[in-house]
Design a protein that fits this description.
The complex is a heterodimer of chains A (307) and B (87).
Chain A lengths: L2 H4 L11 H8 L2 E3 L2 E3 L3 E4 L6 H11 L3 E8 L9 H12 L2 E4 L7 H15 L3 E4 L12 H13 L3 E6 L3 H9 L4 E4 L13 H10 L4 E5 L5 H9 L4 E4 L1 H4 L4 H21 L25 H4 L14
Parallel strand pairs in A: 3-4, 3-10, 4-5, 6-7, 7-8, 8-9, 9-10
Antiparallel strand pairs in A: 1-2
Chain B lengths: L21 E6 L2 E6 L4 H7 L8 E4 L2 E3 L13 E9 L2
Parallel strand pairs in B: 1-5
Antiparallel strand pairs in B: 1-2, 3-4, 3-5
Classes of the chains: A alpha/beta (307), B mainly beta (87).
C-alpha cells in the first residue's frame, strides 16, 4: 500500500503539519499564562496511580485539578499526588486545587489559603455547594468568597451554574473566567440546558468560559466546544471508564474536533430540507407516466414491473 | 542529670503525660492532650509530617507554615489538611 492510498484526498492540498500549526496557534489565556490544551482533567477515582498518570498524558491536559483532605488519620494518599506532580512536570502542566466540600464562603476562603500553601499556586477552583442533592453551587456564598479571594491575590476559577446574572456578578468581583456546569457533578448527563449555555456564550463573548461538571461522553465535550466554549473540565467520565487512558484520548480528540468545528463555523439549522446537490433542471429523463405514478424503468411493461 | 522532655507527645489522657502539665485540645475533631507549651509546629512533627506536607488551621483559621511557632492553648481546635486527588 503506498502513501497515496492511505492519505485523505485533501491532505496533498495543504502543507505537512498544517493542522498542527493551526491548532498550535489556537491558544487561550488565564492571566499571563498561555494554554493550548482545552481539556482540563480531574484526578479523582482512578483505579491506580499509574492509570492516572497515563490518563493525564493521554489527555494532553495542561491543567489538572486536585483537592485537600482533612487529615483524619496519618494515612497517606497512596502516591497519587506524587504521580500527578510527575505527570505534570512531563508535559508542563499546572495544578488547579479545588475547595470541594465547602458550604460557606468562610470555609472556602480558609481552604483556599491552605491550598495555596500546599500546592504553591494561586490558581483556585472555587466550589461552594448550596444543595446536597444536586451539589449545586451556592451563588451568594460563591460571589462573597470570590470577591475576598481575588482581593487576596488568588486567580479564581469559579464553579458556578449557568445563571447569567450570577456569572456577571462573578466577573464583576474579578474572576478572570467562569466555569458553569453542564449538569450536576458526576451525573454524566451532558449539557442539560443548552439554551442557558448559548445565552452565556452570546452575552459574554469575551469571557473565557469552561464547561465544568456533568460531561459524561466525548460527544458532550464536542457539543460544548461546538457551542463556542473555550474548554471543558471533567473527571468521572474518564476515571470511571473501563479503560480510562483510552477514554482520556477519546475526550482529547472530541475537544479538538469540537473546537475545530467552532472555528470552522457550524452550519445553521434549517426547518426543512435544502438540496445539497447543485442540480439545474431535472437530473433524470422522466417518462410522462412518471408524473402520474413514478419512474418507468427501461424494458418494464408497466409502472408496476414484472414478476 | 536528666534532660527535660521538651518533645510534644500526644495522648488520650492528661495522666499519660504526667508529670508534665497537659492541656486539652481537639485534633481533627478528636479530644487529645498535649504538653503545656507544645507549639503547632511541634504537633505537626509529633504526628510524623514534614512541615510542608500539611496545611494547618487552629480554631477554623488558617495558620501559615511560618506561624506555627506559637504555643497551643487549652481548648484549641487543630485541623490538618493534606493534598489529595480531586475533580
Amino acid at each position: 500500500m503506498n502513501s497515496a492510498e492511505t492519505s485523505p484526498p485533501s491532505a496533498a492540498a495543504e502543507p505537512a503539519g498544517w493542522v498542527t500549526a493551526q491548532r498550535g496557534a489556537d491558544h487561550w489565556q488565564v492571566g499571563d499564562v498561555t494554554l493550548t490544551s482545552r481539556f482540563l482533567l480531574g484526578t479523582a477515582g482512578y483505579p491506580s496511580p499509574k492509570v492516572l498518570g497515563d490518563a493525564i498524558a493521554a489527555s494532553g491536559s495542561q491543567v489538572v485539578t486536585v483537592g485537600l483532605k482533612r487529615q483524619l488519620s496519618a494515612a497517606g494518599d497512596n502516591g497519587f499526588v506524587d504521580i500527578i506532580r510527575a505527570a505534570l512536570a512531563g508535559q508542563g502542566a499546572r495544578l488547579l486545587p479545588n475547595t470541594a466540600g465547602c458550604r460557606t464562603a468562610r470555609e472556602a476562603v480558609q481552604l483556599a489559603h491552605m491550598a495555596r500553601e500546599l500546592y504553591d499556586t494561586a490558581w483556585l477552583k472555587l466550589e461552594v455547594v448550596g444543595d446536597e442533592y444536586t451539589l449545586q453551587p451556592d451563588p451568594y456564598e460563591l460571589v462573597v468568597a470570590a470577591q475576598e479571594l481575588v482581593r487576596e491575590g488568588f486567580t479564581v476559577f469559579p464553579y458556578c451554574t449557568d445563571d447569567l446574572v450570577t456569572c456577571q456578578r462573578l466577573l464583576d468581583v474579578g474572576c478572570p473566567l467562569l466555569m458553569p456546569w453542564g449538569a450536576p457533578i458526576g451525573s454524566g448527563q451532558g449539557l442539560v440546558n443548552p439554551f442557558a449555555l448559548r445565552t452565556l456564550r452570546e452575552r459574554l463573548p469575551d469571557t473565557v468560559l469552561i464547561i465544568d461538571a456533568g460531561i459524561g461522553a466525548p460527544s458532550h465535550a464536542a457539543q460544548a466546544m461546538e457551542l463556542g466554549f473555550d474548554a471543558v473540565l471533567l473527571n468521572s467520565a474518564v476515571s470511571q471508564a473501563s479503560e480510562p487512558v483510552r477514554m482520556a484520548g477519546a475526550f482529547r480528540q472530541a475537544v479538538e474536533a469540537g473546537r475545530d468545528a467552532w472555528l470552522a463555523g457550524v452550519m445553521a439549522k434549517q426547518d426543512y430540507a435544502v438540496a445539497s446537490t447543485p442540480v439545474t433542471g431535472n437530473p433524470f429523463l422522466l417518462n410522462p407516466a412518471a408524473s402520474a405514478g413514478g419512474l418507468v424503468l427501461p424494458g418494464a411493461g408497466s409502472a408496476g414491473g414484472t414478476r | 542529670m536528666n534532660t527535660p522532655d521538651t518533645a510534644c507527645h500526644i495522648a488520650d489522657t492528661a495522666d499519660a503525660l504526667a508529670p508534665r502539665a497537659a492541656i486539652a485540645i481537639q485534633l481533627d475533631g478528636q479530644p487529645r492532650f498535649v504538653p503545656d507549651g507544645c507549639t503547632l509546629a511541634d504537633l505537626v512533627a509529633a504526628l510524623g509530617h514534614a512541615p510542608q506536607a500539611v496545611s494547618t488551621a487552629v480554631n477554623e483559621q488558617f495558620v501559615p507554615r511560618g506561624g506555627r511557632a506559637r504555643a497551643l492553648a487549652a481548648g484549641d481546635s487543630v485541623m490538618l489538611f493534606q493534598p489529595i486527588v480531586g475533580g
